[in-house]
Amino acid sequence: MSSDNSGISDVLIERFGSRAGFVRQETKDGITTLWTEREFIVPVLKYLKTEVPGPFKMLYDLTAIDERARESNPVQPGGDFTVVYHLTSLDRNEDIRLKVPLKENDLAIPTLTGVWESANWYEREVFDMFGIRFDGHPRLARILMPESWKGHPLRKDHHARATEQDPFVLTEQKRDLEDENLRFKPEDHGLARSAEDSDFMFLNIGPQHTGTHGLLRLVVQLNGEDIVNIVPEIGFHHRGAEKMGERQSWHTFIPYTDRIDYLGGVMNNLAYLLSVEKLAGIEVPDRAMVIRVMMSELFRIASHLVWLGTFAQDLGQLSPVFYTFNDRERIFDIVIAITGARMHPSWFRIGGVAHDLPDGWQKLMQDFVNYLPARLREFDKVIIKNRIFKARTVGIGVYTAEEAIEWGLTGSGLRAAGYDWDYRKKRPYSGIDRFDFDIPLGKNGDCYDRAVVRMEEMRQSLRIIQQCIDNMPAGHYKSDHPLVIPPRKEKTMTDIETLITHFVGVSWGPVIPAGEAMVPIEAAKGSNGYYLVSDGSTSSYRSRIRTPSFPHMQMLPFISRGYTIPDLLSILGAMDFVLADLDR
Amino acid sequence: MNYLWIILGVIFIALSIAAGLIWVERRLLSVWQDRLGPNRVGPFGLAQVIADTLKLFFKEDWVPPFSDKVVFTIAPGILMVTILLTFAVIPFGPEFCVFDSNIGVLFFLGNSSLGVYSIVLGGWASNNKYSLIGAMRASAQMLTYEVFMGLSLMGVVMMADTFSFSEIVEAQRGGWFILPQFLGFVVFFIAGIAETHRLPFDIPEAEGELIAGYHSEYSGMKFGMFFVGEYLGITLISAIIATMFFGGWLGPSFLPPVFWFLLKTFIFIGVFILLRASLPRPRYDQLMKLGWKLLFPIALLNLLVTGAILIFL
Fold it and tell me: At what angle do helices A286-314 and A447-470 cross, to 10 degrees?
């Protein structure tokens, strides 16, 4: 994974010469990071996608940073804003990050949508959050914030709390304006109102709808019951998690991460903390690593159980949702015993976990590991092997592995198309390479394969948990790194330096050294990663949260065209998205 | 006078079964779904029925301003009336039948065809896209299944040589028609589910897709009529199955005939609920395909074979 060994930056410099003005930047995560000029960014990215041997086919992330308030400036060709492109090459198993500096009075950059269609939403998000224009973008409109919002929230001069602005008043005019903004005008999206011989129906699914699993609006262009096109509208669940990451201390941001993919629980903590620990160079002890793996896999099962039940319900099966939720409660019983909370334990800490495992945890865990396989067999019979279920899912929402990579799909969705890619195997984190487990693969990339793959993933997670039970290492549950553990209390009474360190550590929280890092993990729904930029203070300078649901949802129109409304429900159900994960 | 009692008795039984089904269904579903269900109001939660009904009565009866108000108001009534009318020809026991018509079977088929209007008009008058899609689906689905429904009963009619329900029951003294007419039973049962648009064939409502389909805009007692109408429909189809294929009120004489009739009816109601608890919903075109490509030929074949046997043997 670490990077410059492959010499990709040399290849680029050789290809584009000094004109492109490449500047290398060292990052803590070892991902090749190059600065370049605005004029060159699209050709360079296109070259990386199509011409380079072992091409970088996936646009993993696209975001921006407001650099104007930075305390410490690393090597960087001065700019007020930076646009960051993050590509992944699955062939090379390597990432590359490209950065473009922009001046405040000239915030424009050519669009990447001609190279990656999936750049569309990312660029809209950057426009929404930073006000950076993308020239040539097909429809550069706000995506997360309401159309009427003033300012760009992730700019450093935009307030972070409601109390920093005037009290909110909903006047009649404002209400009418907002209503008008929500009115769907097909022309804005380049959709025709009628075909040659018939008018299209525009069906507004959501924001409140039983099939959308939360606040999501899909405007479906219908010809009869056939889907011609879909315009997803997101942002109803936007809570400004990235902005909060810049306000909270490194430590106090942990509970916010739980609520990103709220079905994934501590797995979100893991993605965040791995990046923080990479930044600070903290080594996590073995025991903590295994505990983290165990809890994460437990939450993977919990998340998949919710998906299974709700998916069956989307297809009209009433009962499975109760069975799977009951089993999920059993998981929560264990989670309560270990962490004290249910869905959002916020239990991992920088350098380890909050406390050691309680006495008797093995029995709780073992009972569950013994209990679930029989239930999974039953679910197989009741749901997966049901003929109507098959009729509703086989051959529906098909995509190939190439298309999946093109759209930035990760997780079970990518594996269901037959591409063997799992971050746990490819870029092992938290010592997960020491475990013995298989990666289930699908063949056809349809809704049915996605279901089968997830069923098998639950079994594999059980295998991992069993190995954790059998081989839990002794030792400390937390690192003894000075950024993690405050000095011993009794010593603070005799030694002023210790007292100061203790006081600062407890009141401010740790000061993470300047730098930037991102460690992608295999979360329940796909790849989750926190791209953290530190300028050497008590909180993050920029917390970019790359979530799987965002690219997955962006692909929805592409995979739904030509199917019918009931199929749309199958596709949505099989996608396994969470609105909080989508909007952050 | 006696006649009046029979009418009141039939209406009372039909309506109280339909209302009671609200509770029965919720409790049965919850048993199959590892949960408790309504168990707080009254003993075993039985008073839940009253609570639900009261709630429906006191809900705001909202008629959407954008709807076709007259049709919108009439639509739920049509459903109730057609189904309740059909109960008139069902023999609950010997001499326990409001109108023992000699064309009972045709009367039932005719009324159930009229029931489609209720749903199509309701969906149309709501002037809502979800309702419209639901109504369109309903009309196609119910018209299709109407065809096999009629055909599947014809085997029994041929064997009993009558259209009267009472005489069909009498004709089963020697043995229930379920055995010779098994195919007819299967087709009728499936068509019956489609006709009452219950899960797995609740495609006109399709909760996950169309909110509530044709009755999305309905509230208060107008919704209640669709709601109770659905239960009445289940009761009716179950009663017809019991009458046509399982010997109606026939049974050992230590218990009154009405008891046997209701027992058989309830068993099929239970099956309806069990189906709802266990099956997912097929797609609309799959349902049509199943109908025209599988059930229709089976119904025809059944008719042919029955006819051939009756003529040549």
Answer: 150
Single-letter residue type at A566:
P
Q: What's at A4, amino acid-wise?
A: D
Domain extents for chain A?
Answer: 4-160, 241-583
Contact A110, A102 (CB under 8 A): no
Best B283, B284, B286, B287 residue to mutate vs chain A (most A CBs within 10 Å):
B283
B60 touches A at CB < 8 Å: no
Q: What is the CATH number of domain A4-160?
A: 3.30.460.80
Q: Which CATH superfamily is domain A241-583 in?
A: Cytochrome-c3 Hydrogenase, chain B (1.10.645.10)
Is the CB of residue B209 less than 8 Å away from at least one CB of chain A? yes
Answer whether A512's CB lies under 8 Å from A536's CB.
Answer: yes
Taking an 8 Å cut-off on Cβ atoms, the answer to whether B207 and A210 are in contact is yes
Length of chain B: 313
Chain A contacts of B211, Cβ < 8 Å?
A: 209-210
In chain A, the N- to C-terminal Cα span, in Å, equals 28
Cα atoms in the Cβ-side hemisphere of radius 13 Å centred on A461: 27
Of A201, A211, A317, the CB nearest to B280: A317
**Nearest partner of A235 among A145, A141, A151, judged by Cα:** A145
The values of phi and psi at residue A55, to 5°, are: -65, 155
B98 closest CA partner among B186, B190, B24, B4: B4
* Chain A interface includes B282 (CB < 8 A): yes
Residue A496 makes CB contacts below 8 A (sequence gap 6+) with: none
ipTM: 0.83
Strands A23-25 and A32-35: antiparallel
Which structural domain range is residue B268 located in?
A: 2-312
Q: Distance of CA A382 to CAs A20, A314, A321, A385, B25, Å?
A: 59, 15, 12, 7, 21
Is residue B153 within 8 Å of B188, Cβ to Cβ?
yes
Contacts of A182 (CB under 8 A, 6+ apart): none
Output the six-digit token pair for B5: 């009692």
Look at A323 and B34 and tell me if their CB atoms are within 8 Å. Answer: yes
Q: Is B293 on the interface with A (CB under 8 A)?
A: no
CB contact under 8 A, A316 and B35: no
Contact A198, A226 (CB under 8 A): no
CB contact under 8 A, A564 and B285: yes
Cα–Cα distance between A97 and A94 in angstroms, integer? 10
Number of domains comprising chain B: 1
pLDDT tens, chain A, 584 aa long: 444 556 887 777 777 777 777 888 888 888 888 888 888 888 888 888 888 888 888 899 999 988 888 876 655 667 888 899 999 888 888 888 888 888 888 888 999 888 888 899 999 999 999 989 998 888 888 888 888 888 899 988 888 888 888 888 889 998 898 888 888 888 777 777 777 778 888 888 878 888 778 888 888 888 877 888 888 888 888 888 999 888 888 888 999 998 898 888 899 999 999 999 988 888 899 899 999 999 999 999 999 999 999 998 888 888 889 999 999 999 999 999 999 888 898 899 888 888 888 988 989 999 999 999 999 999 999 899 988 888 889 888 888 888 889 898 898 889 988 888 889 888 888 888 889 889 998 888 888 999 999 999 999 999 999 999 998 888 888 888 878 777 777 778 888 888 888 888 888 888 888 888 999 999 888 899 999 998 888 888 889 999 999 999 998 888 888 888 888 888 988 888 888 888 88
Asked if A192 and A200 count as a contact pair (C-beta separation under 8 A), the reply is yes
